[in-house]
Amino acid sequence: MPTLLHLSASPRGAASESLLLANDFVAAYRGAHPDHEITHWDLWDGTLPQFGPTAAHAKMAVFAGQDLDAAQRDVWRDVTAAFARFDAADHYLFSVPMWNHGLPYVLKQFIDVVSQPGLVFAFDPSSGYRGLLRGKKAAIVYSSAVYAPGRGPAFGSDFQTSYLEGWLRWAGVADVRTIALRPDAVTGDVAGSRATAQAAARAVAAGF
Fold this sequence. Notes:
Blueprint (H helix, E strand, L loop, with lengths): L2 E6 L8 H16 L4 E6 L10 H12 L5 H18 L3 E7 L7 H10 L6 E4 L3 E4 L5 E7 L16 H11 L4 E7 L9 H16 L2
Parallel strand pairs: 1-2, 1-3, 3-6, 6-7
Antiparallel strand pairs: 4-5
Helix pairs in contact: 1-6, 2-3
């Protein structure tokens, strides 16, 4: 059974624009694909492992083909379990608010946890990186409260889309579709932009 995994990066619950828009996507996806399984990973729920010094040393040991010590094996077990949860899905939905022109740190933490040699990527000294998440596809819901294309640099910059979409394609996910909720570039109003984004979310979900 094909599976859609929704990874939500906002801690704001019912007040989150990105999460509400993702819920519109999920409802439309469920209607279009009643035989698919839909799961949700709230990245703020405490199940995402930390990626600190021991994990970093473990990653480099794996990269070098070296044995792990006991502490490294423990943390590596948590890392590979997080990756397995991610990799079990065929399709991904990310709901991503803009924080300081970029991603919430918990989403960057997720990326750092799962982006491991032999899991998300392979590396060859002569040809470089090769993404291993082939055959999967992703939809991304972006939101921002101030930034919008065309508003000028005083309203912020977009490091949100380039980073996340760049990571997905580096990881091997070639099919990436996006929905963005931005304030109107002239008035700053969100209501009209919200209606447009909701329609886009339903359309993308129906054809996903």
